[in-house]
Design goal:
The complex is a heterodimer of chains A (323) and B (599). With 323 residues, chain A is of the alpha/beta class. Helix content of chain A is 41%, strand content 20%. Chain A is built from 14 helices and twelve strands. A seven-stranded mixed beta sheet of chain A has the order 7-6-8-9-10-11-12, with helices on both faces. Chain A has a five-stranded parallel beta sheet with strand order 2-1-3-4-5. In chain A, helix 11 links the parallel strand 9 and strand 10. The longest helix of chain B has 69 residues. In chain B, helix 2 runs antiparallel to helix 9. In chain B, the strands form three sheets. In chain B, strands 13, 14, 15, 16, 17, 18, 19 and 20 form an eight-stranded mixed beta sheet that branches. In chain B, strands 1, 2, 3, 4, 5, 6 and 7 form a seven-stranded antiparallel beta sheet that branches. Chain B has a five-stranded antiparallel beta sheet with strand order 9-8-12-11-10. Chain B folds into three domains: 140 residues, 2-Layer Sandwich (Beta-Lactamase); 93 residues, PAS domain (Beta-Lactamase); 220 residues, 2-Layer Sandwich (Alpha-Beta Plaits), CATH 3.30.70.1230. The chains are: A alpha/beta (323), B alpha+beta (599). Chains A and B meet through helix 1, helix 6 and helix 7 of A and helix 2, helix 3 and helix 9 of B.
Amino acid sequence: MKRREFILLIGGGLVWPAIARAQDGAKLHRIFWVSTQSEPDPFLDGFREGMRALGYVEGRTVTLETHYAPENPQALRKIVSELPRGDVDLVVSSGPATRVMTAITDVPVLFALSGDPVALGVVKSLAHPGTNFTGSTFLSLELAGKRVELLKDLYPKLRKLAVLSNTDHPGEPLEWRATLESCRNLGIDAAYVPFCGAREIENGLMAAGKVNADALLVFPDAVTLVHRARIAELAIAHRLPSMFGWSEYCDAGGLLSYGANQRTTYFRLATYADRILRGEDPSDLPVMRPEKFELAVNLKTARLLGIDLDVSSILFRASKVIS
Amino acid sequence: MTDGAAQSSSCTMPPRRSLFCKYFATLFVAAVVPLILGAAIEASFGYRDQRRQISAVLQADARAASDRIEAFTDGIRDQLGWMVQLPWSAGDDAQHKIDALRLLQQVPAIVSVSLLDETGTERVFVSRLLLNRTGRGIDMSTDPAVQGARGNKVWYGPVQYQRDSEPYMRVAVAGSLPAAGVAIAEVNLKLIWDVIAAIRIGETGYAIVVDDSGHLIAHPDISRVLRGRASSGSFGRIKHLVGAASGAAVITGERGNPVVALSVQAADLGWTVIAMQPTSEAFASIRAALWRSSILIAFGVLIALALAYWRAHRMSGPIKQLEEGVERIRTGQFEHRIKIFSGDEFQQLALRFNEMASELAISQQKSARIERLKQFLPSQVAELVEHSHELLEAQRREVAVIFGDLRGFTAFSTRNEPDVIMAVMRDYYAAVGAVTTRHEATLIGFDGDGVMLLVNAPVTCEQPATQAVRLAIDLQMTVQSLAGRWCDAGHAIGFGVGVAMGPATVGTVGYNGRLDYTAMGAVVNLASRLCNLAKDAQILADPTIAGKVRDSVPLASLGQRNIKGYDQALEVFAVASAGLPLKLPGSAQRGREKEPQDH
């Protein structure tokens, strides 16, 4: 046994210098960033930060070409069909754009979804995507009920909840259903305030102000994220305790948020981008899920709304407190 | 012809090669084998030491990882222990819920906590994802977690992969009082990743954690874990191979490359931490040593080669020169000289060889000269020259001896001046020599006016007697014609001849290069006596000659005569040749005149 190992060692040792180190060197990778929202794009910033942390230099080792088609999935479809195939190393799609990306079959596609990618049909399973798609999911669906519960923990008098939702978002109906069920369990009336895309956000906000609810729940989504400050303002104006999906909303004046740190998620997406650029097969890269969720509270908003945080368990549960 | 071909082929076969091979083999053994041996010993010892050291490093790292994983699970266990310190009482649920929420805040890996009362009924459930529940809920008393915790205080569930991707495990802790109930936590094992990812063994070594059945729980590359239960099968093999070995084992790693691996058991959980390092890195120092040795060996081989070539060349060059020299000598180029100045035995050998060649040249010259000479010599002489050695050896054989003697010479020499005497002698000697040569006889020598000739020695002839008689006749006639001239000049000189035949010892006698060929025996005396008996112009022969030549030469018996030295009288014959005047008046006178002077 020992001798055989010894021979194995010597054999391996002699072969070793011949093994070329796989170094991509100075190859310029081309990445398409496809999104249905408009700039400024917080997701793109997170991704860029991740790529920078992995040693990529934009313009030298990687080029990020952004393709935005705000509120117009049809226009995005056109961009996709005009993709200069064979020339693009990777497509990264954010949010609803992923739905359009299903047409791509020969370029690896990384996604960051709120919903379930298996339900969307872009991967076969979380462990083995089996397609040219992989990425991460925010588990928004699983957290939908939790958000209602947290809102109720903070504001026990909650009876009627306005739910602002962008119907253009993939998986939105599932999210609404989970929310509705949670409201039923907690004895809350849910007032559904749907809107479709950025064009209708104004209408959505006006409608939300009119439902005469006790609190506001906003589904995390690129459109609401872009308009987070306006939504927060509206909530404060109507004295509505508000609940969001990501802490960025609280930074902009939202009262509460519960969800995965999306910046971390995009950061991780960059590691997958790196691995794919190094030649790994996306079909072998399991879909990532966040394991840490942050509860953010904006103390200033709470003060404005006159909510006494000391009586609830929210404060000690919060992982991020904005004052 | 074939023999020659074989010889030539053996000559053309390169002797240098075999010499080279021998030299190379010797130098190789001398220079390279110790090197290889040294390298092998160094490598094997180095390997053993390195292996021991790697074992220690891997052991330490695996133990550290195992400790940290145990600390992770112990932390969860201890935190859960806080949940089950006090017995349940009515209206306690809210407080328990706060505690449970605090626990979630405290331990990020816990996804949800269930608190059960002493009956096993769920009283509080808090979760990061699902809605919290308080109040009497489902009865979980038959749950293996509850039963395990009740029996053992702490229970660690099997690893389960949520949606066949994320590894989860349930941990249950029962309070020391049964009334305190049981706390069950669901733990996301992805968070062990931090522990494992922090472990770096050398540059590329790492640690993994597998469960009892070999399924992957933690790996620095988290996506390997997320691939779920199905694709973590290969780690079962690694766990088995590493577990079977005592200490570090060299196995084929997950990427198919050889790795050194060592496993450590995490006691409570039944998990195994496997620390591994690619052999390429682990044994880099040995490999470097091996490379060094290889280069040294290669260098040694080159030196041995060069040395062998040089030595063999030094050796085979002179040999080749000598061989060529021999070949040239063989073809007769005696002037060829070998030039070797190696200062060793070769030079000595070349010197000897050159000496030999020069001596051969001299001998060849002599032989060539003789060859040339032979063309101008009578065959007997030529033979004598060629075979002088054997011919001149002392031997006993039948010879004919001829003696001649001038008559009246004493009186002549006293009466005349020395220059007249010398002139007569010169004529006489010249005549005798000419006759001797003509008849291929051997001139033994002159003795004043006498002469002795030998036939059939050293050169043999067919009929010595006849030849001797003919010579005698010719000699008598020649000298008689000279005597006629001397008579005309006023000198009364005659000539008598005696011929005898018989056995005699012939050979060379003498000293220091002054050698004479001569004959000894009775026949010589007899011939001398007969010569003395003979009158002028007379040839006397003994009975032996007479018997042999009777048929060809007319003889006249002179009857029995007493001869000095012989007891009995011998019959003496006189040769009566046609050309020989038996009795000339003048000569008879001269003979008579002479006789009293001689005796």
